[in-house]
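Deliverable D5.2: sample structural annotation.
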Amino acid sequence: MKPLKNDNKENLDEIINNTYDPFAAFIAPPPGETPAEKSVRERREAEAQRISDKIDEDIRHERESQKQQKGIVRVLLLGQSESGEPNLFL
């Protein structure tokens, strides 16, 4: 891939019209972006990535805890009414 330049419209048109990556237009920096705008955009992207990583980590932990619980067997003991056996719910 060629390095991206964010200072000319031709580069953005080339990205949009390129068929090998349909999402390139969405992730390309806007044409004529100032350094201040770039800084704000990069901070937002970093925060979004941090949140996404946190969600991924939470999902991983949830899956691990579910795998550990697969060994649990739940048993319900039933008998005739008032025969003296306890109903056990685990």
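Annotation notes: The two ends are 58 Å apart (CA to CA). The longest helix spans residues 35-68.
The annotation will be released with the project's public dataset once the embargo ends.
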